[in-house]
User: Fold these one by one.
Assistant:
Number 1:
Amino acid sequence: MDHVSVVVDDLPAAMDFFTTLGMTLEGQMPVEGPWVDRICALEGVQVDIAMMRTPDGHGRVELTKFHSPALVGAEPAIAPPNTLGLRQIMFAVENLDDTVARLRALGAELIGEVVQYKDKYRLCYMRGPAGIIVALAEELF
């Protein structure tokens, strides 16, 4: 896998959110032109993208902010975790409580509760900018 793409309405807020998860900005640039229109099957595409790299250097998340055409909202806007389609990206974290606190300081919300799975993991879901859901997992072994 090369990367996962996430469409956001506030690129700086999304970049802060993923930076708080330990990712680093690999690059940022505007993208437009006939080739983008053709691949997206849209006309007049103008976007800004930010490519974020995971701490291990193997994974990337592309954050995409559309300027044109206008964003299209999903229904319901705050979809529950059992909604069809891509719902979350999971990140391994060293300290779940600290990570939750740092994300909450950016406006992220805890979905449900922090739970423990046997003696193996502490887990939770967090909702961030643009309704992005991330799962967090702290290994206990």
Number 2:
Amino acid sequence: MTIKHWPEDQRPREKLLRQGAAVLGDAELLSLFVRTGSGGRSALEVADNGIAELGSLSALAMASPQRLLSLSGFGETHYALLQASLELARRHLLFSMSDREVLSSPEAVRQYFSLHLSGLEHEVFCGLFLDNRHRVIEYAELFRGTIDSAAVYPREVVKHCLSRNAAAVIFAHNHPSGVADPSDTDVRLTRKLTDALSLIDVRVLDHLIIGRGRQTSLAERGLM
């Protein structure tokens, strides 16, 4: 039975319009992007199967185009819609942080980095560069590595800060394993960057480790 033949109070779109998006489950939300079924399955069943195959809604949303298109019932249009929705969320969060001190909304900072980094299969090291009132100047991906590590060069980070006239920075990188615990290497790198940037009066406010559904702050752990 297709979704249009379901009782109206069970249809994802009608539920969203009446009660808001927060009441929908992961598969129900995704079914609004899938829109039509495939192979005798409803859009909700296609969505549910896709999430099950990749392990989570986040993993599906962050999947490469090749991986997403390998799922039954998904095509290029679905990939484009998912990427557009992620970019809308990123821009909304960046706008919400742009006219205020980022430390007043730490959860928005974590969500912003997670939308960029969570679920990636390779390691990415990035930074949120701030002015002297801790307002956002720029988000930038600084280094990209393999599934194991990314080579981070303090000299290049210093050059980037100087070129943007940054007064402070928040770093983040992901662990493709999904585990958000900082390694000894992460701690050493953070201290090395902090020392290098202190020479040009740029403060490192935090370094976030992004895992699967979890983020760890080195500043909160006293590891800076």
Number 3:
Amino acid sequence: MRDDHRVHVITGHYGSGKTEFALNFAFKKAEKQDNIAIADMDIVNPYFRSREKKAELEERGIKLISSSTGYSTADVPAISPEVYGILQSNKYEVILDVGGDPNGARVLGRYFQYFQEDNYNMWMVVNANRPNTQKSKEVIEYINRIQDSSRIAMTGLINNTHMIRETSKEDIIRGNDLVVEVSEITGLPIVYTSVLEEVVPDLPKDIKGEIFPISLKMRPYWL
């Protein structure tokens, strides 16, 4: 797993699976460390919020910072002041689950001083099956708009192309082709290919990025 920086910003278009990735990333980090914190900073999308997994996160020793601590189903468009604390302190390795559109990314602007050159990761989660991110031009436009809104540079790409439980190796390959094209145009590295655990054995060897097996944390079995 990539742990070259203390702060990891996870962003992506609505439906990309950024929160699933952020939660899995936090859980895997917590298997080896006891200083993981995740901040739910998505003030745009009221669905599939990392704060919904408060109990599971705390069971694993992961500190959750939410806009609505104590009210997991409330939709309060505010960011906890605790975010400043975890960014200022070196105590925690921090994962920020940020709203994927430019409006959602704008909240990062207030923390601009904590994102200096080469001291953070900001990864764009890409799902090639989403209507607005099926072409490299569309993905790059999203990247540019998020960077403009947040005033923070993107540092890497994550292929998280999926069809939820119906995800196949063909979906992953389609996403791989897309992020490779985006990477070649932008110079951004492909950091991970995020894929359901059961699909991993079927993947070809030339998939780019570190293979990151995930399980669905946000989807109940009936969804």
